[in-house]
Amino acid sequence: MGGISIWSLLLIALIVILLFGTGKLKTLGADLGGAIKGFKKAVNDDSSVEKNSADADFTPEQISTKAEEPVNSTASQEVKKD
């Protein structure tokens, strides 16, 4: 009913094969596959670049290795008065 039947699709495929030949269709398919792979690679590279650039803004602080002297409190010391 108004749709494309399987026979119509087969007839269109036969005409395309006769016009372009199987060699040209193989080349076209390989080029299309390479373009899709390149697109996927570019999308993945862009997302990894964004992830790395977000982390690049963070600069960790230097941690000093020498220990600080403890603060002497008068409450903890006993005061002797004579």
Average pLDDT score? 77
What is the helical fraction, as a range of percent?
Answer: 55-70%
Order of helices and strands: H
- Give the distance, in angstroms, between the N- and C-terminal Cα atoms: 116 Å
Structural class: mainly alpha
Show unreliable segments: none
Number of beta-strand segments? 0
Q: Tell me, what's the shape?
A: rod-shaped
Q: What's the gyration radius in Å?
A: 37 Å
Tally of DSSP helical segments: 1
Largest sheet: none
What percent of residues are in strands? under 5%
Structure description:
The chain is mainly α. The chain has a domain at 24-55. It is 62% helix and 0% strand. It contains 1 helix and no strands. The longest helix has 51 residues, at 6-56. It is rod-shaped and about 115 Å long. The mean pLDDT is 77.
